Amino acid sequence: MSTETTAAPAATATAHDAPDTGARTPEAAGLITDARGRIDDLDGRIIGLVQERIAVSAVIQRERIGSGGRRVNLSREMEILAHFRDQLGKPGTALAMTLLELSRGRI
Hints:
elongated, mainly alpha, about 110 residues, about 65% helix
């Protein structure tokens, strides 16, 4: 009986293991991978900010309803829609609508 052990083969990265960037050169693939990492970080921050916005909106709604007001203030929502549209164009309106939808009724 031999006491020799066989070392496991070293892990090597293959094209199959690399994320698909669509790039045709290693340099471009590296830049794309780095940029995607930045986007992932930004997305995480955006999600955190959306969650914070939802929480702040809940405070506003709770106080408004507690004082006899309505859950939604339509004139304020129109201001928000206009602000996003002015800053981001038509897609900004859709983004604002999504944010408003996420923020409604969480009291």
